[in-house]
Amino acid sequence: MESAIERVLISADEIEAHVSEVGKKISKKFAGKDPIFVGVLKGCFIFMADLMRHVNIDCSMDFMAVSSYKGTTSTGAVKINKDLNEDIEGRHVILVEDILDSGVTLHYLMNYLQVRNPASISIVTLMDKPARRKAPVYADWSCFEIPDAFVVGYGLDYNERYRNLPYIGVLKPEIYT
Length: 177
Ligand code: IMP
Ligand code: MG
Fold this sequence. Notes:
Layout: E1 5-10, H1 12-30, E2 36-41, H2 45-52, E3 60-70, E4 73-82, E5 92-100, H3 104-114, E6 120-128, E7 141-145, E8 151-152, E9 168-171, H4 173-176
Parallel strand pairs: 2-3, 2-5, 5-6, 6-7
Antiparallel strand pairs: 1-9, 3-4, 8-9
The chain binds inosinic acid (IMP) and magnesium ion.
């Protein structure tokens, strides 16, 4: 598996340090507000599990599953594969994403959830690739700003592989070309 990785972009130690810092900041901002964290599956699963262990306030969690990506290029179309189980009316929603790329997925999700009248919607992302943004979406918290490279690991995949790497790595271009 690791032979497919060109280089380590973010080590497991760096991830841990930044994720814990962001968890503390979110805890401060939402203390007493009982937010609901909404993980965007599948990419969020490792990030959210680690993040939540640094959130020390009352809160709840739910998950959505969306797909917008085939291989390394977005199809531009977003499909909801699993909707929320919880009612978000009047709640402070915090969307938890693995990576903010074109922004198409989160732009769609924010509009999709807004009509249910949450008290607020904010975004926490593990990584942000601002150079690739197409839709007007901004992360309230981003653990890492990264250059325009296709990355895998720590939950992120290429065709469902490499999610179990404990760090973020740049995939060798020959894997997807
Ligand atoms: P967006 O809609 O273009 O912002 O894409 C968001 C989704 O695309 C993310 O949640 C990821 O699932 C996927 N994605 C974008 N960039 C990468 C990458 O570098 N590696 C793996 N998945 C990515
Ligand atoms: Mg994703």
